[in-house]
Specification:
Elements lengths: L1 E3 H13 L6 E7 L2 E8 L13 H13 L3 E9 L8 H6 L6 E6 L6 E8 L2 E5 L2 E3 L7
Parallel strand pairs: 1-3, 1-8, 4-5
Antiparallel strand pairs: 2-3, 2-4, 5-6, 6-7
The protein binds zinc ion.
The site of zinc ion (ZN) has 5 residues, from β4.
């Protein structure tokens, strides 16, 4: 999985802005590469849970199509827990075709990991952060 550095910077900034609550968004791109963040509202406004607003989900899918991109993943932050899916995250991961990114703000340096979650089975993916120059996304 590849992601542009500027996208990582955008989601870290959004997650820090929305502390102490969890923050979330969709990630657009193609196949194994993320090229855009689509910020979403955490409808739960909670430090321990998040959920998307259905109207925003429709708008996100529409926007991805408009940009000729796919919704390749979603992300959310863990303000004070590690960068791996919680039991609830695993239970609520309904789509084995998208990649679940989790940004942990637990330590001083933010940690971002990517996972495929299929029917309760979690697979951590190698995540490559691409600098603008080396990416042709
Ligand atoms: Zn979570």
């Amino acid at each position: 999985m590849k992601i542009k550095r500027e996208i990582v910077e955008q989601i870290v900034a959004q997650a820090l802005r929305e502390l102490p609550n969890e923050s979330c968004g969709y990630l657009f791109g193609k196949k194994n590469a993320v090229s855009a963040n689509y910020p979403m509202t955490n409808a739960d406004h909670s430090p321990e849970h998040f959920s998307f607003v259905p109207q925003e989900q429709f708008a996100a899918i529409k926007e991805a199509r408009k940009q000729h991109l796919e919704v390749v993943g979603s992300w959310h932050s863990h303000p004070s827990s590690p960068s791996r899916p919680s039991e609830e995250d695993i239970r609520l991961a309904y789509d084995p075709n998208i990649i679940y990114f989790i940004l942990s703000l637990e330590a001083k340096e933010p940690v971002l990991n990517a996972f495929r979650i299929d029917n309760g089975h979690v697979e951590k993916l190698a995540l490559e952060i691409m600098d603008q120059e080396e990416s042709d996304l």
